[in-house]
Amino acid sequence: MRKDSTGQTAEDGNAGRARRRRIPRWIWWVGGVVTVAAVAFGIVLAYVAHNAEPILRRRVIANLQERFQSPVELDALHISVAKGLQVSGSGLRILSFGQRPGTAQAEQAPMLAVKSFSFRMGVRQLLQPTMHVAVVRVEGMQLTIPPKQERAPLVPRKNEEEKRPKRSIVVDRIECSDVTLTIATNKPGKLPLVFDISHVTLHDVGAGRSMPFEAQLMNAKPVGDIASTGKFGPWQSDDPRETPVEGSYSFTKADLGTIKGISGTLDSTGRYSGVLGEIGVTGTTETPDFALDMSEHPVNLRTEFDATVDGTTGDTILNAIHATLRNTVLEVKGKVIRASDLPGVGMDDVQGHQIEIAVVSDKARIEDVLTLGAKTSPPLMNGALTLRAQLMIPPGKVSVTKKMKIAGTFNIREATFSNPQWQQTVDKLSARASGNPEKANAQDAARVASGMGGNFALADAVVNISKLHYQMPGAAVDLTGNYSLDGERFDFSGTVRTDATASQMLTGWKSIVAMPFDKLLKKDGAGVQAPITISGTKSAPKLGLDLGKLSTQILSRHKDEKPAPAPDTNQAAAALVRSRNASLRLLLSRLGARWPSIHMQPQSCPRRSWICLQSIRTRTTL
Question: I need a labelling partner for 299 at 20 to 30 A (CA). Which of 160, 177, 315, 496 fits?
Fold first, then answer.
């Protein structure tokens, strides 16, 4: 049997052709119909895609024009059938919604501008009277709200009063990124309010209803991430300040170092509700490493606050702040005002906000305040503190610690010094001023607590104290002066008053030598009243008598004394000499018994015993 080149016989080839002829003809017909249908469907899709673009473009423009009664421009709109009907557009502009006709801004810039948008839909949805869109994605939106005097209703009143027509486009969700909201003003010298929002999602979008939203944005100063969820609207076009808003927020990893003069990382959570012009906000903050640049001593700062915010200007009323700084509790009230809204401040003068607050504390510790505000470590003093102060931080690029201004009163109780040498000095001074000089020389002198209070004012990083009263057992000091926050300058002057006289503050022969001066140093019921000065730096303070004022005080006292009238001048002079000689003999006899090296016989003194006493005083150190 003959085989061909493939190895098959003629009978095998005939059998194959017979099997192929057995395929039913209807299968071929069905295949052909499917092929034709597929080609036809592709042609239809291509036709729809080509012709749907102008249809959909007209529908989008008509819907927006009817909604806002404003001219609408759309540069481009495209439909792709690769993955269903994918719609994308660019250059969308709504020119003058929410603005009265004829105003200048309506002719210059669009109220709403969108860089690009996209959404997906089905073919049947395109042909239905009401087109339903699940998600619209928008990038690069700029929304500008005109000044109040130029605003028209966002939705015209005739549409509000008449039966609202059925919407031709329904959107479930709009996802926007890179959004800028600007609320303009026509007040001379005032800046518009600008909000930069990185991402916001609006649900159930439509006029005359409240829209749920989620938003994320980067706060400019201090730099940090803000996330918020809530409800916004319905929009009140006549007065946007009356637009309702409510929700919750979280402010995380806020870098306070972006504000000159302070540092730390702040986290805050809270809730808000109200209208744009008056939003009530409650929440908490936590800053575990809060510090001022003047001290660079980080402390843990926690607050609970209740505030009212004007969302159209940024102005904030601090109704109540409960702040905890280590073991110190502060109660704070105040306000934060945009600089351009301040009287006499122009738009180009300065930017930022001015902070004005009142601080009250009955549960404070001076060591906590000094840790935060002074470079010295450990804090110079420990004790209970009562504080009343008014603080103002003006706007500007200067460090907070250099531009803030504080004025108030304070009172420190049970105060002790952390420096052992300072505390020992106070202990010894207190013992002498109380008339117990023998205890001042003891190594175990009793540790005393002191008190301090007065009025103060801080400006340009310098504290000015107009009245400072320092009290310790046995003595009181009244001072005025100033010192710098960096501790490099102290300049105080005042008076010290003691319970004991000069001689009672000394022991041995020094006490005897000082007796004649007791009368000269006594004043207004004090055993000693003497002028003092405090100067130097934190590392080398200087405390001393103001000899010039002391001399003036003694001389003025001598002039004020009126001598008793004497019937006979010679007799009075003789009596005075006899009295002074007797006192001198007693003094010299005691000095001779106590200190032989300065022993002098009374008869060796000249007749003018006061001169003799002066010569002894110059050779004796108190």
Answer: 315
3-state secondary structure 531-579: EEEEEECCCCEEEEECHHHHHHHHHHHHHHCCCCCCCCHHHHHHHHHHH
Distance (Å, whole) CA 34 – CA 43: 14
Structure tokens at 372: 């935060």
Of 234, 242, 144, 235, residue with least CA distance to 185: 144
Which are the contacts of 611, defined by CB distance < 8 A and separation ≥ 6?
A: none
Higher pLDDT, 544 or 301: 301
Evaluate whether 518 touches 501 at the Cβ level (below 8 Å): yes
What is the band of 78 on the pLDDT scale with cuts at 50, 70, 90? confident
- Is residue 230 within 8 Å of residue 254, measured between CB atoms? no
Give the range of the structural domain holding residue 600, as residue numbers without chain letter. 574-622
DSSP H/E element including 248: strand 244-255
Distance CA(234)–CA(243), nearest Å, equals 6
Angle (deg, nearest 10), helices 609-618 and 508-521: 120
pLDDT band at 563 (very low <50, low <70, confident <90, very high): low
The total domain count for the chain is 2
pTM of the model: 0.68
241 and 277 Cβ atoms separated by less than 8 Å: yes
Residue 50 covered by a domain? yes
More confident residue, 312 or 232: 232
Domain's final residue, options 265, 284, 314:
314
